[in-house]
Structure formats: structure tokens, C-alpha cells
UniProtKB/TrEMBL annotation, chain A:
The lineage of its organism: Bacteria, Pseudomonadati, Pseudomonadota, Gammaproteobacteria, Pseudomonadales. The electron transfer flavoprotein serves as a specific electron acceptor for other dehydrogenases. It transfers the electrons to the main respiratory chain via ETF-ubiquinone oxidoreductase (ETF dehydrogenase). This is Electron transfer flavoprotein subunit alpha. GO terms for biological process: fatty acid beta-oxidation using acyl-CoA dehydrogenase. It comes from the Bacteria. Binds 1 FAD per dimer. It comes from Pseudomonas soli. PANTHER family: ELECTRON TRANSFER FLAVOPROTEIN ALPHA, ELECTRON TRANSFER FLAVOPROTEIN SUBUNIT ALPHA, MITOCHONDRIAL.
Automatic annotation (TrEMBL), chain B:
This is Electron transfer flavoprotein subunit beta. Heterodimer of an alpha and a beta subunit. Pfam families: ETF (PF01012). PROSITE patterns: ETF_BETA. It comes from the Bacteria. The keyword Electron transport applies. GO terms for molecular function: electron transfer activity. Belongs to the ETF beta-subunit/FixA family.
């Protein structure tokens, strides 16, 4: 049994989500190979070779794989997949974009966003915004799986010494092209990797008021998130959304400010270790999952909190 | 150009579902059903393309039970021209749905297929990408902006770090994200008119589609409950608890 992990990487570095995905692969058992596909990714492959528990790194360095266009990357993964029992990728926007395309080309159903490994063919995954947990068994010859990174503690980024092997295959479907990207620039930690997350909801009133959360976050070294209601209302961009349809986070501390606690928001944060809710409505459902609830006007409580931490 | 929109009948997003006592699934008896929210955004985008003169015809398709006709009628009331129901009582996995949609694409030959990025029941986020694989079309998933320009469509995508724009050759598959548009409500006159629009029913058998899946759900359980904690009276008390009790700051 050998498992292929499709690595997530950015700016020439292995993304943390890859380490959680290797951890899921280790739970399944067997040899772990990591595929690094992209352009000028020699450095990424070198880093991937150091990940604890990785036996081999396959590097597909080709202009066709720059920007991870699924039309080009999926055929590469399919070509390689035939020798593997499992293909895993993190359930990032990138993994979610590519892996179902791989599964369909292999004529198998994918298992999305697993949170635990029961055996080599059986996995648990949340459905209905996490209101139910399904145990799913796959009979596919090659099991295609995305991994919810919060379900698995990252393996060590150092300590391994895997062989690096080049993959010559170049698949360029010629059907799609990268035009451009606008990446959010922030000195704060990345939302899904942060130890502390401060999130705002509709109660923030407008986008400008998020400055109170940024100030608090900077004091705590935290990332800033938002509920779908705040994104819908246009307060902040979608890449800050925490919830069923946004990012899934599980930090040590989650501070929900002016968030009522809709089902779909809880789906994205209820695995946080400690949850704090600040809301002026004492009936808000967020208090039902909060370890510490404070019924208060956020415009008074947040600046005071910033001073005291 | 012709636009195909796929929609799914799901539990209404306001319903808090309960797991059945025998762990065979969630209890859907007497529960309000609606069109999946991301599919509403897909229908709206198609209607806007038609209003701009880019789309000439909108065909809406659903793969599901006979009752999914309700959601197809809603889509017709919102502005779709005709509907196709691939009727099956079976609960399908994404690959089977994608195969049924592929058969409809082969028949209808649309230039653009728009789907929701994920259904809020299974939370799979697979069908659009799988349909793209089966048809060999390019895919623009998690779209926040869709612009048809000649024989290409530019799709701006919501990605983890921000936004990415790709240019796709037509025909192409687009899946919708939250900010693509804000769906309209159907007006009463349009709801009445929708009753007269054509709705064709076909079976997966007639399309020659296999519904087999490599996935089998063994059981469905309620998640571990998180118990409510305590209410603190002041910010000072909160900070004290976080420092000394929870030890997280």
C-alpha cells in the first residue's frame, strides 16, 4: 500500500496544509510519496523531502503546472495514481479544485474532507454543515480523498530524508490560462494556521469597524476572520469567511465578536479549543457553544479587551 | 449561446437536521426542502447573462426525485426557459450525478454549464469538477465573477489567499461562490408563467447512465456535542479566565 499526497505549496514553500495531509496518510499506513507539481519548484521538492515520514518526492516541474490549473494537473495525477492505493490532497481551494477532477477521470467517487481514518478504506467526514458525521467506506482501487486539515495534527516539517525523483510527464490541455491574481496582503498569521482567531459578524455594523478587531488581533498575534453575514453585507472580503462555505478553523482560541452563531458559521469553528463569544444579545446561539460568553456592547468590550491582554 | 444550469433539491438552509435513531442517515420526514443556495446563485447568473444578451436560452436540469420538479419550477419562475428532470429515487453520489449531467450536456450541447460549488447537504464540492473531467471542458470553480468574451470566459475565483482569474475556452464549466451575485425572488406573475414552461422527465436508464458508486455510507452519527460554558461579567474577568483557567493567552 503506497499513498500519494498532492502537495500544496505557495511562494516556493511547502504549505502547512501539506503536513496535516501527510499526517492523515500516516494514519492510513504504508509508504507515503509526495507529488510537487508546479514551475520552478525544485526548492519546494527539497523541503518536501524533509517532511517526517515521507519516503519519496515526485517533482513535476513544468510551465504547464504553474498556477495549478486543474485541466493540466489532474491528468498528471491520474497518470501517476495508477500505482497507488490512495491519493490525498488537503481540502484547500486548490485541493478541492483538482481532486474531484482526478476522481472522475479514474471513474471513482471521492471522499471529501475526512476528519478521521477508521481503517485503510473507511473514513469519517462531516455532512450537513457538521450537524452529522458520516462513516464512509470506499471500494475504489485508488481511493481519492481530500483531508480537512483541522482533523489531523501536522507532522514535523523536518527530520525526513526522502529521495527526490523527477516526473517528465507534461500535460498541457491548452483549455485554460492563468490571467492574474489578487492576493490579500497581511502581516497577520494565515487564518487556517493561526493559534488565535478573532472573527467579526454582522454586529460589527460596517467594514470600517473591523479596525477594532485588527487592533485586538495584532495585540494577540491573531488572524482575523468573519462570518458569512459580514461577508454578505460587504464588510470584508470572502477570503476571511469562516464557516461551512468558507474556511474551517480550529485554533487554540476563537473569539467571536458580534456573531450570532448561525449553523453554517459554527460548522467552521466549533472544533476550536476555547471559544469566546462577545455579543449584546444574550439569546444568541453562539453562547451555546462558547466556553466564555460576555454579554456586552462590542464597541466597548473589544477596545477594553485590547487594553487588558 | 445556450447555458445549462444544474440545481439540487436539499434541506432548507434554516433547518437544523437530526440524525435518525438507527444511524442510517438524517431525518428528512416533514422537513422543509429548497433549492440549494449555491444553485440559486447559478440560476441568477444565467438569467443575468440572458438579460445582457450573452445567453440565448437557459436550460435548467436536476438529478433527483420527482419532487425536485418544485425546484425546477422555481428556476423557471426565476427566468430559465425549460427544465429537464433526470428522475431517480436513489440517493446519488457526485460521480453518478456528474455522469447524468454529462449525458444531458451531450444532448443539449451548451456553451456554458453553471453549477453551485457545493450542496449544503452532502457538502461534497465535487460535481462541477467531475462534470468538467467527464466532458473534457475547462473549469472555473468558486466563481465570484464571470465574463464571457468571444470564445472564452474569464472567471474570477475565490481562492484561499484571495482572488485568481483564469481564462477558459468555451464550452466551460463554472461553479458559483457566494459573492457572484445576489439571487432575486420570483414574482407571482412569473411563478404563474413558469407553470406553463416545458419540463421534460427522463430516467438515468434512458440516458444510459450507471448510478453505481465506489462509496458506501456505513453510518451517520450526531457530532460530539460541545457544552455551553459560563458567562463572564466583565472584560477583566474574561481576561483572567483566558490567562489562568484556559491558559490560551
Amino acid at each position: 500500500m503506497t499513498i500519494l499526497v498532492v502537495a500544496e505549496h505557495e511562494n516556493g514553500a511547502v504549505a502547512p496544509a501539506t503536513l496535516n495531509t501527510v499526517a492523515a496518510a500516516a494514519k492510513i499506513g504504508g509508504d507515503i510519496h509526495v507529488l510537487v507539481a508546479g514551475q520552478n519548484v525544485g526548492g519546494v521538492a527539497e523541503s518536501a523531502a524533509k517532511i517526517a515520514g515521507v519516503a519519496k518526492v515526485l517533482v513535476a516541474d513544468n510551465a504547464a503546472y504553474a498556477h495549478a490549473l486543474p485541466e493540466n494537473v489532474a491528468p498528471l495525477v491520474v497518470e501517476l495514481a495508477k500505482g497507488y492505493s490512495h491519493v490525498l490532497a488537503p481540502a484547500t481551494t486548490n485541493g478541492k479544485n483538482i481532486l474531484p477532477r482526478v476522481a472522475a477521470l479514474l471513474d471513482v467517487d471521492q471522499i471529501s474532507e475526512i476528519i478521521s481514518v477508521e481503517s485503510a478504506d473507511t473514513f469519517k467526514r462531516p455532512i450537513y454543515a457538521g450537524n452529522a458525521i458520516a462513516t464512509v467506506q470506499s471500494s475504489a482501487a485508488v481511493k481519492v480523498i481530500t483531508v480537512r486539515t483541522t482533523g489531523f495534527d501536522a507532522v514535523a516539517a523536518e527530520g525526513g530524508s526522502a529521495a527526490v525523483e523527477a516526473v517528465a510527464a507534461a500535460h498541457d490541455a491548452g483549455k485554460s490560462a492563468f490571467v492574474g491574481e489578487e492576493l490579500a496582503k497581511s502581516d497577520r498569521p494565515e487564518l487556517t494556521a493561526a493559534k488565535i482567531v478573532v472573527s467579526g459578524g454582522r454586529g460589527m455594523g460596517n467594514g470600517d469597524n473591523f479596525k477594532h478587531l485588527y487592533a485586538l488581533a495584532d495585540k494577540l498575534g491573531a488572524a482575523v476572520g468573519a462570518s458569512r453575514a459580514a461577508v454578505d453585507a460587504g464588510f470584508v472580503p470572502n477570503d476571511m469567511q469562516v464557516g461551512q462555505t468558507g474556511k474551517i478553523v480550529a485554533p487554540q482560541l476563537y473569539i467571536a465578536v458580534g456573531i450570532s452563531g448561525a449553523i453554517q458559521h459554527l460548522a467552521g469553528m466549533k472544533d476550536s479549543k476555547v471559544i469566546v463569544a462577545i455579543n449584546k444579545d444574550e439569546e444568541a446561539p453562539i453562547f451555546q457553544v462558547a466556553d466564555y460568553g460576555l454579554v456586552a456592547d462590542l464597541f466597548e468590550a473589544v477596545p477594553e479587551l485590547e487594553k487588558l491582554v | 449561446m445556450k447555458v445549462l444550469v444544474a440545481v439540487k433539491r436539499v434541506v432548507d438552509y434554516n433547518v437544523k437536521v437530526r440524525v435518525k435513531a438507527d444511524n442510517s442517515g438524517v431525518d428528512l420526514a416533514n422537513v422543509k426542502m429548497s433549492m440549494n443556495p449555491f444553485c440559486e446563485i447559478a440560476v441568477e447568473e444565467a438569467v443575468r447573462l440572458k438579460e445582457k444578451g450573452v445567453a440565448s436560452e437557459i436550460v435548467v436540469v436536476s438529478v433527483g426525485p420527482a419532487t425536485a420538479q418544485e425546484q425546477l419550477r422555481t428556476a423557471l419562475a426565476l427566468g430559465a426557459d425549460r427544465a429537464i428532470l433526470v428522475e431517480t429515487a436513489d440517493e446519488l453520489n457526485s460521480l453518478a450525478v456528474a455522469k447524468a449531467l454529462k449525458a444531458v450536456v451531450d444532448k443539449e450541447q451548451p456553451q456554458l454549464v453553471i453549477l453551485g460549488k457545493q450542496a449544503i447537504d452532502s457538502d461534497n464540492n465535487q460535481t462541477g469538477q467531475m462534470l468538467a473531467a467527464l466532458t473534457g471542458f475547462a473549469q472555473g470553480t468558486f466563481a465570484s465573477k464571470v465574463e464571457v468574451a468571444g470564445d472564452k470566459v474569464n472567471v474570477t475565483r475565490e481562492i484561499d489567499g484571495g482572488l485568481q482569474t483564469v481564462a477558459l475556452n468555451l464550452p466551460a464549466i463554472v461553479t458559483t461562490d457566494l459573492r457572484l451575485n445576489e439571487p432575486r425572488y420570483a414574482s407571482l406573475p412569473n411563478i404563474m408563467k413558469a407553470k406553463k414552461k416545458p419540463l421534460e422527465t427522463v430516467t438515468p436508464d434512458a440516458l444510459g447512465v450507471s448510478l453505481a458508486s465506489t462509496n458506501k455510507t456505513l453510518k451517520v452519527e450526531a457530532p460530539a456535542a460541545r457544552s455551553a460554558g459560563i458567562k463572564v461579567k466583565s472584560v477583566a474577568e474574561l481576561v483572567e479566565k483566558l490567562k489562568n483557567e484556559a491558559k490560551v493567552i
